Every structure is written in C-alpha cells, then in structure tokens.
Amino acid sequence: MSKTLRALIIVLLVASCGGGQTSAPRGLDDACTILQQRPEYYRAFRAAERRWGVPVHVQMATIHQESKFVADARTPFKYVLGVIPMGRQSSAFGYSQALDATWDEYRNAQGRRSAKRDRIKDATDFMGWYMNQSRDRNGIALSDARNQYLAYHEGHTGFSRQSYNSKAWLVAVASKVDARAQMYQGQIAGCRLRG
Fold it and tell me: Does residue 113 carry a pLDDT above 80?
C-alpha cells in the first residue's frame, strides 16, 4: 500500500471519529420526532430539568429559536461593501448560541472547564443555569418561555431595563418562542419516550 493511500485512510478514520452529529434532526415542528431521533437530547433536557427546574419544552423552544438544533451554529458574517467579510456578528456559538464571555462565566461558576457549546448536555445545563439567574434576578418563572427568552436575548440587565420594548421584532420572536414551547409541551405529553 502506498504512503499516500495509507495517509488518506488514516485521515478518513480520524475524521470519522468526530464530535458526533452537528446537523439538525428532521421534523422540527414535532417534539416527539426530535426526541425519538435524538434520545441523547431527551436525556440532556431531562437532566437540566432535574437540576435546574427548567421544563423540557422551554429548553427545546429556546434551542429551536437560537440554533434550530444545529450543534455548531454560528451567527452570520458581517460584510463591508456587501462583499468583504469582516468577522461574525457575535461570538454566539452552538446549540444555545451562548456568547464567549457568558459561556466562560458559566464554566467558571459551575467548575465545568471542559463544557462545550456544541455538546447538547452542556448547552442544556448552561440554559438551566442562565434561566435560574433570570428567575433570581428578574423574577421570571422558569416555565415562562416568553420572558425567559427575552432575558436570554437581552441579558439580565437589558431585561430589567426593558430594552426589548424598543425592539418590536424581538417581542414578536419571544411570542413565537412561547407559542412553540406550548406546542412542544402538548406534544411531549403524548410522546412515548424513555429517559
């Protein structure tokens, strides 16, 4: 076997050992379909619910809005003159679209230095941690998908200042997140799931 062929085989083997699925599951409008395709999602959602008290349907609706369940989702590029890429719109990354600084704050506060934003169990734990802070700082119920999303998007200080009131588009998105959470809640009640 030639050296080139041997090297190619090794590269392909290493590449096949990657970090798992990064693409979204099919049927994003059906919670049961999502959770049946990706049982590891259900385990992660349930673990975060047990630890932090954030309902599965609230977590799912938030992740749907943030990343559409794409593990390595990133914000779009900014362009100068419409063609020259000048970096991404923000450092948001992964299922939860957590910003670099907020993710680092979470990892330090929770002692989870190896946590990764493109790993579902870490992303859901982060969301539980963050949403508990929203409850503690701003009095938002963990089951209140609309206001939890507004605080998630605007930050705790932004939410307390009601910065979202000047962003009609964001208020509309938060209402969609709430509607999706309610839809997912109804669907999950009829699912046959293990975890």
Answer: yes
- Which residue is associated with the tokens 């992660």? 44
User: What one-letter code names the amino acid at 25?
Assistant: P
Given a contact cutoff of 8 angstroms between Cβ atoms, the answer to whether 82 and 160 are in contact is no
Checking if the pLDDT of 97 tops 80, the result is: yes
Mention every residue, 6+ apart, whose C-beta is less than 8 A from residue 99: 90, 91, 92
At 89 the pLDDT is 57
Two tokens, residue 175: 């209402």
In contact, 128 and 51? CB cutoff 8 Å: yes
pLDDT digits (tens, 9 = 90+) for 147-186: 999 999 999 999 999 999 999 999 999 999 999 999 999 9
